[in-house]
Amino acid sequence: MLRIFASILFFLLILSCKSKQESLIEEINELVEDQNYEKASSQLKDYLVKPKSDDEILSLEKPETTRIVELSYDRKRLVYLEDSKLTWKDLVEGNKETKSLDEVPASISVSSNANFALAEYPMANGCRLFAISLKNNDLHYEAGAQISCRNRGGIADDGSKIYYFVDNQLYEEKTVEPRTPKMILPKEKIAPPFPNLKARFFLYPIGKDFLLFSGNAGSYYLYYVQPDKKTSEKIDQEIISPLLYYGTGDAAYYLGGSIGRLHLRRLQFGKGKPSVNKLFTVSRKEINPWKLPAKNEFVSNYSGKVHLWGPSRKSQVLPLLCERIWVVDQNKILCENETKEFYITGLDFPEEDWTILKLYEESRDK
User: What is the pTM of this model?
Assistant: First the structure.
């Protein structure tokens, strides 16, 4: 009896949701007939911006500083910072941990498994570093060095070591007392394309090793760094952005080329040095390439819109308005909208949502 009642209730909920969409479409059609395009556009935009009833709302906070978001290597764990509140969430098992930090970090970077983080705190002349555990309170270590806030450091998967840059050199420090930082790569081993320009360095973990972007002004080299062996190997050049987008499986994506001529590149991981593949030209609407499980399908956001695209398909705007997006495990989009609401939504849209998107574009352009 309870099972039958639950099925009926679920069916009624579906009808209620559909009725709400249909009611909105009918109301908008009336507004359009009255040529009240501004009100129609506002109501349609509100529907496309807001999370739906079956979305997973992560936060309705409106942090004073930009919300910092980090993902694990496999995109199954999420870390986000809202001012001084740090949240760790396992997207598969649903486990969640939240902790309050003493100060507001300028940035954080997480380990490959997202169990540990390296937080940078601004000071008068640089940044100080803290290594922290995200699932518990086992680690809270302050590094001995004061560093430049321009770079992105890293932390080992077990939290035992941190990595940072001083005078264009890579240092390693164990997260136990006494503090014993040691230089593991001199600047000659991680040189940028233009040595006379002030360089920036960005570390991204892949297992026990790291990828390192070195450069500035839209021109970077990419190095494969093995801290245990104290080695680095340049694996790519002519890179325009030091941002890395973890893909599905053992791959990641980034942008190469030059200003006005961008193309996508893929890093394939395995044993040893990753391989680099130059893929295809991309437009400005595709500059944050999040890979979907389907072959050669990506999503990006640009100017508040979310685009589905690929080399063999026409770019398509989805019925979803997000200021920033991240693609997490499976076909899920992590969305931050213009009012700072933060939620996870799927890519299966009912026909009514596509109709609402079309009506929104038409009323907005009137």
Answer: 0.89
Exposed e or buried b for every residue in 64-77, given b needs 16+ CB within 10 A?
Answer: eeebbbbbbbbbbb
**Domain 66-244 class in CATH:** mainly beta
Q: What is the pLDDT of residues 143-187, one digit of tens each?
A: 988 899 999 999 999 999 999 999 999 999 999 999 999 999 999
Provide φ and ψ at 19, rounded to 5°.
-60, -40
Sign, CA dihedral 323-284-290-120, equals negative
Q: What six digits make up the tokens of 207?
A: 């297992």
pLDDT band at 43 (very low <50, low <70, confident <90, very high): confident
Q: How many residues does the chain have?
A: 366
Q: Which of 355, 357, 330, 356 is nearest to 344 (CA)?
A: 330
Contacts of 340 (CB under 8 A, 6+ apart): 61, 62, 63, 67
Give yes or no for a contact between 222 and 234, defined as CB atoms under 8 angstroms apart. yes
Q: What is the pLDDT of residue 15?
A: 41
237 CB-near residues (< 8 Å, 6+ apart): 193, 220, 221, 222
Query: What distance lies between CA 129 and its chain's CA centroid?
Result: 22
Question: What is the CB-side half-sphere exposure of residue 338 using CA atoms within 13 A?
Answer: 11
Matching residue, tokens 């939620």: 343
Taking Cα atoms as reference points, which of 122, 123, 187, 184 lies closest to residue 154? 184
On whether the CB atoms of residues 134 and 116 are closer than 8 A, the answer is yes
- Quick one: tokens of 329? 């495990």
Report the pLDDT averaged over residues 84-94.
Answer: 95
The domains of the chain are located at 26-60+298-366, 66-244
User: Per the omega criterion (within 30 degrees of 0), is the bond before 227 cis?
Assistant: no
Query: Sheet containing 342-346: which strands, arranged edge to edge?
Result: 56-59, 342-346, 332-336, 324-328
Helix (H, G, I), strand (E, B) or coil at 242: coil
132: confidence class by pLDDT, cuts 50, 70, 90: very high
Q: What is the mean pLDDT of residues 306-313?
A: 92
Per-residue CA distances from 161 to 131, 209, 255 (Å):
9, 12, 29
Q: Which of 70, 64, 189 is nearest to 132 (CA)?
A: 70
Instruction: Using pLDDT thresholds of 50, 70 and 90, give the confidence band for residue 28.
Output: low
Q: What CA–CA distance (Å, rounded) separates 288 from 254?
A: 8
